[in-house]
Amino acid sequence: MVLLTILFCIILLVLLVSLIKVNPFIAFLIVSIIAGLLLGIPINKVTASVQKGMGDIMGQLLIIICLGAMLGKLVAVSGAAQKIAGVLVHAVGEKYIQWALVVAGFIIGIPLFYGIGFVLMVPLIFSVVYKYKLPAVYIGLPMLASLSVTHGFLPPHPSPSALVALFHANMATTFIYGLAIAIPAILLAGPVFAQFLKKIPSEPLATFRAEELPAEKLPGAFNSFFTALLPVLLLMLTAFFPYLNIKDPGISKVVTFLGDPSIVMLIALLVATYTLGVKQGKSMGQLAGSFTDAVKDVALILLIIAGSGAFKEVLTASGVSSQIASQLEALNLPPLLLGWVIAAIIRISLGSATVAGLTAAGIVAPLVLQNHVNPNLMVLSIGAGSLAFSHVNDSGFWLFKEYFNLSIKDTIKSWSVMESLVSVIGLAGVMIINLFVK
């Protein structure tokens, strides 16, 4: 009955948004309340769960998305995105621009949280799309596949890192195995799969569209790349700080503070305000207008993501993940496959990769010791399962849909299938490596 209830709620959500044309935020609120009641949450606690879910996800993403939109807007209107696109195409040729973006997405994705990487890289994708009149989904999805793979497979991302600790795996070994799996997953789910997506119609979010400027009015190449990628550089520095063996607790606290994604984005925006704004002859009034426009453009996205957080919290608070996991635990499957199946089903049901990964890990942890399973591979198996079939209950699905301005059908055909390919290819890679390692 639990799975049937979740299925009913997901179908209701899709019908409300796509068939009846209800605003997605309102649809999420309606479905979240219905789900809470059907799943047995006390009637006086349903709204509290909804509010908590919205608050939790907004606490993580509100500052990042708003500041990222402002930075993206500035990168676009200043001509920096146009300059970056021109330099990339000149370096690799228009024929290979997709591959250049895939490599950039992979490098950037290693130190960055997925949401930050998405917000930062979308303006770069759109600048290439607008300048060279290329299909947006065809060009953009492979880069986002890179970000998704690093998020699910590679430490120091939160979920893989937590799983490494939980299974007492080796961080470096997990990273190496993850890298071996990540490369074919990115290639097959990215550029290869994107060949079938060239005809998907997409008119990306207008906030990142800027008038093409004459060459003499563009910022320099170094200024453009440095400013656009400053958040990446700052986060990479903080990610590598623990390996410098600096013991001073005062310095560690400062680095931790400066490495917080919200602080990083604020620093990057302040630097960009000077390097791409004031230095380029723009007044603070003009810049404030651009920032206001950027926030207006992402306001609906924020509401939709808040709604998805409410839905996820209602499902989590009802204890659905534990019920699903306990039912699946009885299946007679090899431990690595069982970890993937549990993570995948919880991911499909709840929408959160992190919740799916950590819940599955708690269930299969005893099996790792009992069956002498390689803990590094269990981390990757569960990580792969936690990426399976992102759909309407996942905030990443709505980020992609709204930024690329797609229908739900086309978002499923592109984004959801890409995530599923990454998940299945990841499992296949784990099973192959398991044949050769003890």
UniProtKB/TrEMBL annotation:
Entry GO CC: plasma membrane
Transmembrane parts of this sequence: 26-45, 57-76, 96-129, 136-154, 174-197, 218-243, 255-277, 298-317, 337-365, 377-400, 420-437
Superkingdom as given in the UniProt entry: Bacteria
Keywords: Cell membrane, Membrane, Transmembrane, Transmembrane helix, Transport
Any one Pfam family match given in the protein's UniProt record, by short name: GntP_permease
Localization annotation: Cell membrane
Gene Ontology molecular-function annotations: gluconate transmembrane transporter activity
UniProt entry tagged with the keyword Cell membrane: yes
Membrane protein topology class: Multi-pass membrane protein
Record carries keyword Cell membrane: yes
Family the entry assigns: Belongs to the GntP permease family.
Stated name of the protein: Gluconate transporter
Organism: Mucilaginibacter rubeus
Taxonomic lineage from the root: Bacteria, Pseudomonadati, Bacteroidota, Sphingobacteriia, Sphingobacteriales
